Amino acid sequence: MKNLTIKSIFKVYQFEELSEEDRKLITLAKNACNNSYVPYSNFAVGAAARLADGTIVTGTNQENAAYPSGICAERTTLFYANSQYPDQAVDTLAVAAYNQGSYLQSPIPPCGSCRQVILETENRYKKPMRILLYGEKEIYECDGISNLLPLSFTAKNME
Ligand code: THU
What we know:
Layout: E1 11-13, H1 20-32, E2 44-51, E3 56-60, H2 73-84, E4 90-99, E5 102-103, H3 112-125, E6 130-133, E7 139-143
Helix pairs in contact: 2-3
């Protein structure tokens, strides 16, 4: 037996330490939370994606009485970006969440399905995606989904 250790790297920022363009992207993700449709969870998530050509798109979580029919903010955003701008890689994705009267204090962790879709998007465009996870206290930045989804399953595993 031996141990396999997989390393994830996150940079931890205060909002003021981020570049102006990252602050803008996060602000758009926060504002997008106002457009969430969350009658069941009241947990509003917003995401904003900056594409390779500088275009920014936003998206929110959309819930449904038949629970699995809803979708997270990250996937709404990436599917919209990939539908409207299929020739543009996603450079950076910012995510924020609002619950019980305030934005989350700690960085919002994307769910497993969203991590898998981020991975697919990276592979599609052959470019790691910078991911900014917003929290009021601190912001996590990671350079690529491998930090959030180690030992991932891709089309290569089916070869
Ligand atoms: N949700 C997201 O939109 N993104 C995440 O990263 C985590 C969870 C949504 C799904 C559901 O509408 C609500 O938050 C509660 O799980």
